[in-house]
Design goal:
about 650 residues; alpha/beta; ten-stranded mixed sheet; four-stranded antiparallel sheet; about 35% helix; about 15% strand; globular
C-alpha cells in the first residue's frame, strides 16, 4: 500500500486559496500540470508532492498545514482502509500522553506526524480536525446528528449526567454533547490529564477482542466492562452525577472512532460494536438516561427472529416500523423514572401500522412529548419509563417547534400547551404535531407576553471609541500580502453548489447577512469547505467571525482562515466589512485581496477586534429588537381586533 499523500481538485483549491474552477483551468491550460495518480475520471487524485512542486514552480502561493499533511497521509491509505486507520489514529492519540501509546496499524511516518500535530494543537483538537475531514469525505455513508439537536436531546434526557446509553452512537455525536465532554482540554493526553483513556472499546460478539490500541472489556481504572453499570467516577462532575457513557454502533470502525473521541475528553465510556436490536450489547443494563438517533425506514431490522423478544412491552413492532422497535429498546434500557430522547421520522407519529403501540405508550404514560423540530421533520420523542405504582399523566405535549429549538424546553413545563391523552386515543392515534397545532387565545396571549418581555429585555451595548482630531497614519498591508505570507488562507464553496436539500447544513449568504445559524442544506459533494470556529466568512457587503462548527460554506461566500498566532479574526472581519461598505453602488465585483488594513501587533489587533466584535453584537441586538418589535405589533393588532387582548385601563 502506498503512503504517498494524494489530493483531489477540491483539496488543491483549498490549499492554493482559489476556487475549483481555477484548478480546472490550470489543468486545461498547462500541459505540465500533474497527471492523476489514482481515483476516477470524475474524481481524479493527484500526488501532493507533485502538486506542491507545480504550484511553487509557477509562483502560486499555497499553504499545507501540518494538520492537512496528517490528513492527506491518512487518506493515502485508501477509502477501504481509511476508517480503520482513522480508528487506529484515535487510539494512538488517546494514549499518547500516558507513556503507553502504540502505533499499532499506523506506519512510523504517520505516527510521527500525529505526534507532531498533537504537540501543536493538543491531541483532542488534532483528532477532531481529522474527524471533521473524515466525516466530510464520507458524508454519503455516515449520518451525523446536528449539534444543536444533539445538545437539546442531552439536556432533556440527561440534565444531571449519570450513566447515559446511546444504542446507535455512530461516531459519538450525541454523547459528545454531554457537559463533561465539551471542554476543550478535558481528557487531552497532551495536557497530561489522567482521565484520558477511561474507556472500553470492543465488539459485542462473545469472546471477541477490541481491535486497535483500546482493550476490550477493561478501562483505565481496571474495572470490568460487564455487569450492570452505575454512575462513573470520571468526568468533571459539576452539580450532577459524573458521566459514564455506554454506546453500541453497528460499524466497528465508527465504534472505535467514537471510543477514541470520548477518551480524548476524559469521559469514562464503553463503546461496543454490533447490531443493537439483534445482538444487544448491554442485556439487563438500565441507564439513567438514553439518547438515540436510530436509522430510519429499516425493513431488515430483525422482525422474524425477534418476534418474541421481551423488549416489546408495548406491542410487537410491525415489519415496516423499525423505529418503534428502537423506542422500546431504549425504554428497556432506562431506569424507572429515567428519560429517553429519540429522533423519529415524522411519519412514525401517524402511520396506521403503529397506532396500537402509540396507544399503549400513551396509556402507560411512557410517551411524554412529540415535537417536530423543523418543517419536514424529524420529530423528537421524549419518553419516561413509568415507575411502579405511579399514576400515568393525563396530558402530552405535541408541538411544532418550527425550527426554534430554544422554545422546546420551556414548552414542556408551560400550562395550556399540552393535549389530553384521552382525546388522542381514537382509531388513528395520530400524534402528528401538524394535526394538533391550532393557535388558541391562550397561545396568542403567551406569545404576546413573551415577545413583550424579550423586547423590553433587549439591550444594545455600544463600544467606547475615542474621537481623534487627525486620522492615524499607520503602516499598512493588504489581505493579498497576508495570503502570500501564509497568514491567511482563502477558500470558496464549489461552483454551482445546491443548498435546497440534503443532510449537510450550509451557511448561506443570507445567514451571514442576518447573523443567523446555517439555514441551507446540501448533499455530499467533493470540495465542500467545512467552516470552523474562528474562520472569517464574508459576502460583498459584510463579514463575520464564525463561532460554531458543523456547517459547510455556501455559495457567494468567501472564507478567510487566519493564523491566529499572528492575525486576530475579528480585526480582519472588521476591515473586510468596512471595505465592503465603501464599494460604489452598482459595482458587481470586489477584489478583497486589495483590502488595506494597518500593520499592527497581535495585541493591538485584538483591541481593534474587540471593538469590531462589539459593533457586530450591537448590530445583531438591534436586528433582534426590530424583529421582536414587529412581532409585538402584529400580535397586538391581531389580539385587540379579535378580542383575545384587552387594553389596560
Amino acid at each position: 500500500m502506498s503512503h504517498d499523500p494524494t489530493v483531489n481538485a477540491g483539496d488543491i483549491a483549498r490549499l492554493a486559496g482559489v476556487g475549483r474552477a481555477a484548478v480546472s483551468n490550470w489543468r486545461r491550460r498547462h500541459d505540465d500540470f500533474p497527471k492523476p495518480v489514482d481515483g476516477t475520471a470524475a474524481q481524479p487524485l493527484f500526488a501532493l508532492r507533485e502538486v506542491e512542486a507545480w504550484l511553487s514552480r509557477y509562483g502560486k502561493s499555497y499553504q499545507v498545514s501540518l494538520a492537512d499533511r496528517a490528513w492527506q497521509r491518512l487518506k493515502a491509505s485508501g477509502d477501504l482502509q481509511l476508517g480503520r486507520i482513522m480508528a487506529a489514529a484515535g487510539g494512538f492519540l488517546a494514549t499518547l500522553g500516558e507513556g503507553r501509546a502504540d502505533a499499532g496499524e499506523l506506519d512510523e511516518g504517520l505516527a510521527a506526524l500525529l505526534s507532531e500535530l498533537a504537540a501543536e494543537r493538543g491531541a483532542r483538537a488534532a483528532y477532531e480536525f481529522l474527524c471533521a475531514r473524515y466525516l466530510e469525505a464520507h458524508s454519503r455513508k455516515l449520518s451525523v446528528t446536528r449539534e444543536d439537536v444533539a445538545a437539546l436531546m442531552v439536556r432533556l434526557a440527561a440534565p444531571d449526567g449519570g450513566t447515559v446509553l446511546d444504542p446507535a452512537c455512530g461516531v459519538a455525536t450525541l454523547p459528545l454533547s454531554l457537559p463533561t465532554a465539551g471542554s476543550l482540554t478535558a481528557g487531552d493526553p497532551a495536557a497530561g490529564n489522567p482521565a484520558a483513556g477511561n474507556l472500553t472499546a470492543g465488539s459485542s460478539a462473545p469472546g471477541s477482542s477490541a481491535p486497535g490500541n483500546l482493550p476490550a472489556g477493561s478501562s483505565a481504572s481496571g474495572k470490568s466492562g460487564s455487569g450492570s453499570p452505575g454512575p462513573g467516577n470520571s468526568g468533571s462532575g459539576g452539580g450532577g452525577k459524573a458521566v459514564r457513557v455506554l454506546g453500541q454502533e453497528l460499524e466497528e470502525t465508527s465504534a472505535r472512532i467514537a471510543a477514541a473521541r470520548l477518551a480524548l475528553r476524559g469521559v469514562e465510556a464503553e463503546i461496543l460494536a454490533g447490531d443493537a436490536l439483534r445482538h444487544d450489547a448491554f442485556p439487563g443494563v438500565r441507564a439513567d438516561a438514553v439518547v438515540c438517533d436510530p436509522p430510519f425506514n429499516e425493513r431488515a431490522w430483525g422482525y422474524d427472529e425477534l418476534s418474541g423478544d421481551p423488549r416489546w412491552e408495548y406491542g410487537l413492532p410491525p415489519r415496516g416500523e423499525s423505529e418503534l422497535a428502537w423506542v422500546q429498546h431504549c425504554l428497556t434500557h432506562v431506569k424507572p423514572g429515567g428519560l429517553v430522547a429519540i429522533l423519529m421520522p415524522a411519519a412514525a407519529a401517524s402511520r396506521r401500522a403503529g397506532r396500537r403501540i402509540r396507544g399503549n405508550l400513551l396509556r402507560a404514560g411512557a410517551l411524554r412529548a412529540v415535537v417536530t423540530l423543523w418543517p419536514g421533520g424529524p420529530d423528537l420523542w421524549l419518553l419516561r419509563r413509568p415507575e411502579s405504582g405511579e399514576r400515568p399523566p393525563s396530558e402530552i405535549l405535541i408541538m411544532d417547534a418550527g425550527g426554534d429549538l430554544a422554545g422546546v424546553e420551556p414548552a414542556l413545563s408551560e400550562d395550556g400547551r399540552h393535549l389530553r391523552i384521552i382525546d388522542l386515543l381514537d382509531d388513528e392515534v395520530d400524534l402528528s404535531p401538524s394535526r394538533h397545532a391550532p393557535r388558541t387565545g391562550a397561545d396568542l396571549g403567551r406569545a404576546f407576553a413573551a415577545a413583550r418581555e424579550r423586547f423590553l429585555a433587549a439591550s444594545v451595548d455600544a463600544p467606547d471609541l475615542r474621537v481623534l482630531d487627525q486620522p492615524l497614519d499607520q503602516p499598512a498591508t493588504t489581505i493579498g500580502e497576508l495570503v502570500k505570507a501564509g497568514l491567511v488562507t482563502i477558500l470558496q464553496a464549489p461552483p454551482r453548489m445546491a443548498v435546497d436539500g440534503g443532510e449537510v447544513p450550509v451557511l448561506t449568504a443570507d445567514d451571514v447577512e442576518r447573523g443567523a445559524p446555517p439555514s441551507g442544506a446540501t448533499g455530499p459533494e467533493a470540495g465542500l469547505v467545512t467552516v470552523e470556529p474562528g474562520d472569517v466568512v464574508a459576502t460583498y457587503a459584510t463579514a463575520r467571525v464564525v463561532t460554531t462548527e458543523g456547517a459547510v460554506l455556501g455559495p457567494q461566500l468567501t472564507l478567510y482562515r487566519v493564523d491566529r498566532r499572528r492575525v486576530d479574526p475579528h480585526f480582519l472581519a472588521g476591515f473586510l466589512r468596512s471595505a465592503g461598505a465603501r464599494v460604489p453602488a452598482g459595482s458587481s465585483r470586489v477584489d478583497a485581496r486589495r483590502t488595506r488594513l494597518p500593520r499592527l501587533s497581535l495585541a493591538e489587533q485584538r483591541t481593534y477586534g474587540e471593538a469590531f466584535r462589539r459593533l457586530a453584537t450591537m448590530e445583531d441586538a438591534l436586528r433582534e429588537a426590530t424583529a421582536l418589535g414587529e412581532t409585538l405589533i402584529r400580535l397586538g393588532h391581531e389580539g385587540l381586533a379579535d378580542g383575545r387582548l384587552h387594553p389596560e385601563p
